[in-house]
């Protein structure tokens, strides 16, 4: 087995797991107090519980065995999070917003590679 196939197998296994989405959901939930304090770079108090619920739902869909729709939901909302928050997080130069940003980007990559590979296959 080549390195490319091994990497693809690991990414596929992660994309069929609800845990990446649940990690992002928990991260957004734990960021709610920071958004109430209006910490620079952290999404607003409206966004943090909304994204926590959405990513929790994407994980639930994946845990029920609907891998394609779970991956689609996680990918779409990861892209939405990045579009809404990338400038604010990077301009803040604070570790928590940048950690949130990279975690969501990783989530989008894990589920996005599976979704788009299956969508265009």
Automatic annotation (TrEMBL):
<protein>
    <recommendedName>
        <fullName>Altered inheritance of mitochondria protein 19</fullName>
    </recommendedName>
</protein>
<dbReference type="Pfam" id="PF10315">
    <property type="entry name" value="Aim19"/>
</dbReference>
<dbReference type="InterPro" id="IPR019419">
    <property type="entry name" value="AIM19"/>
</dbReference>
<dbReference type="GO" id="GO:0005739">
    <property type="term" value="C:mitochondrion"/>
</dbReference>
